[in-house]
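Re: the 225-residue chain
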Amino acid sequence: MASGMLTKQATFNTFKFLNNVNDAASGGVIVSLPSGAPSPAVSQDIPGDRIVIDDATALALSDTVGTGTLFGGVYEYVGTTAAATANPARGTLAFWLAANLGSGATPLYTVTSDAQPTTALPNYIAGVFINAITKGNFGWVQVAGLANVLFDSALTATSNAAVVVAKVSAAVASTADAGVPGGATPTAAQVAEVMAAIIGTAVGTPATSVISPVLMTRGLFGGRV
């Protein structure tokens, strides 16, 4: 597992697989060490913690049968808001709460499964959920690398290596769109819309209502340092 100034050395990992984590409390179950016992080599996960893993480690941390396969990249531990309408689901987008941004509350690193600031302007992207998380619980989102992303039931384009963005007014909450509005001759406003909501580039040809790999090109590093 790689590490650096923007990531922690290792994750406490309260579940066997990273894409099964659904902690009811921040960091999972807190266990007090007996007096005189040595400290563990890893520290409790705290919202905002990030880890960097390669493909081999991501595979080892994947529940390939029950959830799916993870790929190399950067993952961040976050809390979710219990007040969300949509349920955090694998492949859907996590958003920073509009009310928290700029308020000093962002160190709490709480995300929502509802598009922010609005469904028509889904630009406050925090990452991609790697598994279902109970609203109000804690888990991991992917913020960089090759991610599994759920596409909406209608797409602007279905071409190989299409640009992938957060879907405006998505039929399925917090899903992605592929392609650029306006096709080969988009307006300046359409280009600006894509730039604000971009996630990355589709690997292969995206399809409606399918979870597909996306190479994330958006820098989503709003975590603890």
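The mean pLDDT is 88.
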